[in-house]
Amino acid sequence: MTPLIETKGLTKAFGLMPVLRKLEFTVERGEFVALLGHNGSGKSTLMRMLCGLSKPTAGTIRVGGWELPNEADAVRSQIGVVSHKTLLYDTLTARENLRFFASLYNTPIDDAKINAALTRVGLGKRGDDLVRGFSRGMQQRLSIARALLHSPDVLIFDEPYTGLDQDGSIALDGLLKDAHSAGHTILMATHDLDRAAALATRAVILSRGVIGVDMPLEGVSGSQLAEAYRRVTGVAAGG
Amino acid sequence: MTAAAAHSAAESLPRANRLGSRLLILLSILTVIGVLIGLYLGMIAAGTDIEQGEVQRLFYIHVPSFAGAFIAFAATVVGGVAYLITRSVKWDTLALAGVEVGLALAAINLVTGSVWARPIWNTWWNWDPRLTSDAIMILTYAAYLMLRSGIDNVDTRRRFASVYGILAFSTVLITFLIIRIRPDTIHPVVIGPVLTDASMMASQGDFELNATPGVTSAVAFASAVWSILVPWVLVWWRIRLENIAHRVSALRMKVMEQ
Amino acid sequence: MKTTPFFKAVMAIVRKDLQAEMRGRELVGAMGIFALLSILIFSFALELDREARTEVISGVLWVTVIFSSILGLNRSLAMERDQGNLDALLLAPIGRGAVYVGKLIGNYIFTLAISAILLPVMSALYSVSLFDPFVLLTLLLGVLGFTTVGTLLATMTVQTRAREALLPIVMMPVALPIILAAVRASTGALSGSAQGDWIGWVQILGALDAIFVVMCFFLFPFVVEE
């Protein structure tokens, strides 16, 4: 079976500065991959390219058998993205946001479906409130509901824990687990090694634009992962 | 990034080759000679204008410098379109060089016009439509440079600059065409059929181009030099400068890595 | 069929912009107050007698409409930038052109709404009726022209360091041909001179609109995609 996500010789340079260098990266269906690495290691660049926001300087990307950038719309329709920014309109209500994004993805939607989506992320009673009035955690949960609307195969999380308090982070842990067990393939960039070790099935550590370590996480503790991280990047986690 | 990567990045940059350098120096000498001959034809050989006197001789710089600016800004459009298609840095360098050279030539055009206006109109500036649109054209390309300097990501900068360089050419076309659509200007239609009402232009400081011997040939020669040689030679030098600057920054990165 | 139909995506974006505007009235509110303030300032500054008014009123109208539209364009695109919404639009399986046309239609509607407020107010303040069919036509065409250019340029400038400050600088010169033709056409229509004297300006305006719409539509993907 071909991998769900596959990059070959993926290279990206900003001007003369190479950010990713001939990256060979694959994700199998059903995996939960934690993408680690310090700032500037190429995590965000890789994620932006996987969802078609940024074009590679060289190399190819295939998602679910479709190739970027020529079949970008086919790729986009099977990816859901949650970023550290909310990607929501804060002058609209939660319901209006979901309705808007559903129509962009050409997904038929009715009130019952919206209610179900809201209830799943614990916002069942807040559907008609403006997003502006939501806490950071509520906004992030709504953002997940938004990303799940079109039932994508792949979920991409770019530092989703940024700005969340303790309760918000725990709620997000639960949602990530649910999404993974519901069959979504997940790729998450994070600085939080303990969380990565607890949630993900595999860790990929990027360093200087190449994969430094690619290790399964079954039975691996946070401190073991931190040790590997230090070995590859030469700096402590979160640096 | 590694030293090797920086090194290969520096190596991949265009390096001035010897043949190119010789050709450029040859063209530069030709340009200087051409400009000098143009000045001789205009300043000495051509007869003195009956109505305006010696000040009319500014015309031999005024018109050719606009021709040169037009060519340089057109090079920016070509560079912009080619960059958006190929994403090759050299085209953006051409576009940037075109803007800077065009600005310099347009500034010569504007200043000579203003100096001419002082004795003829008795003012440095009036709101002649072409004068106004020429000033707006210069501001447009100043805005191009501001837009570039406002963007940190080099790729984004090149993309946006290409798009803007293409759109900005509309002000060049307007400046070129405005004498046909706004008849209340003293600028005569030099190229192409005259569509405007001649009586509108006869008001103040009109040019009787054919009345003085040697004027037409001097303008034609100078315009040819200023539109064929001057912008291209300047653009070429500017591109070389930009390439050298790229090499310096790549080599500096390499040194920092070691 | 993976791509969302063009028209559906455009309508979704327009509806979203209108919904947000009905809720907060951030755009039309700011634009409207700015527009009213500036025509008051013009009437003080120019101290126009009745004769002079007919001459300059279309200039006052256009300057006011353009500056308030710049205000609106900045807000409209800043709204797409603040929470990463522009990325969210680009992540959807829709054509980049649909994003452009959707934002353009929204901005066009908002600027026309401001014009609709300005016309009766200016007619009353300056005692000149602006409700001339050709003035209305010129407004429809002229506003389309510079919101076309403005939507493209605002998408670029909100992504720069200078942000809001840069839009008027880059937009005014590029929109100059449209402004020129629009002022001439509406001045001609208001002056009561023969239609043949100025109808050419309306035609030029229409041609410029067509050129800019096509150019900006094809250039837009380059300002949003890395």
What keyword list fits this structure?
A: 239 residues, alpha/beta, six-stranded mixed beta sheet, 8 helices, globular
Can you walk through the features of this model?
The complex is a heterotrimer of chains A (239), B (258) and C (226). In chain A, 34% of the residues lie in helices and 26% in strands. Chain A has eight helices and ten strands. In chain A, the strands form two sheets. Chain A has a six-stranded mixed β-sheet with strand order 6-7-8-3-9-10, sandwiched between helices. A four-stranded antiparallel β-sheet of chain A has the order 2-1-4-5. The longest helix of chain A is centred in the C-terminal third of the chain and has 16 residues, at 166-181. The relative contact order of chain A is 0.17. Chain B is mostly helical and 258 residues long. Chain B has helices at 3-12, 18-45, 59-86, 89-121, 129-149, 154-181, 198-201, 215-257. In chain B, helix 1 runs antiparallel to helix 8, helix 4 (89-121) packs antiparallel against helix 5 (129-149) and helix 4 (89-121) packs parallel to helix 6. Chain B is globular and about 70 Å long. Mean pLDDT of chain B is 79; it is low at 1-7 and 192-206. Chain C is an all-alpha fold and 226 residues long. Helix content of chain C is 85%, strand content 0%. Chain C has helices at residues 6-24, 26-46, 50-82, 85-91, 96-126, 133-157, 166-191, 195-224. The longest helix of chain C is centred in the first third of the chain and has 33 residues, at 50-82. The mean pLDDT of chain C is 89. The chains are: A alpha/beta (239), B mainly alpha (258), C mainly alpha (226).
What is the tally of beta strands of chain A?
A: 10
Contiguous low-pLDDT stretches of chain A (5 residues minimum) are none
Structural class call of chain A reads alpha/beta
Shape, per Cα inertia axes of chain B: globular
The tally of beta strands of chain B, per DSSP, is 0
Number of helices of chain B: 8
Query: What would the principal axes of the Cα set say about the shape of chain A?
Result: globular
Assembly state: heterotrimer
State the end-to-end distance of chain B.
11 Å
Q: Strand portion of chain A, in percent? A: 25-35%
Describe the SSE topology.
The complex is a heterotrimer of chains A (239), B (258) and C (226).
Chain A: E1 5-14, E2 17-27, E3 32-36, H1 43-50, E4 58-63, E5 66-68, H2 72-76, E6 79-82, H3 94-104, H4 111-120, H5 136-148, E7 154-158, H6 166-181, E8 185-189, H7 193-199, E9 202-207, E10 210-216, H8 222-233
Parallel strand pairs in A: 3-8, 3-9, 6-7, 7-8
Antiparallel strand pairs in A: 1-2, 1-4, 4-5, 9-10
Helix pairs in contact in A: 5-6, 7-8
Chain B: H1 3-12, H2 18-45, H3 59-86, H4 89-121, H5 129-149, H6 154-181, H7 198-201, H8 215-257
Helix pairs in contact in B: 1-8, 2-8, 3-4, 3-6, 3-8, 4-5, 4-6, 4-8, 5-6
Chain C: H1 6-24, H2 26-46, H3 50-82, H4 85-91, H5 96-126, H6 133-157, H7 166-191, H8 195-224
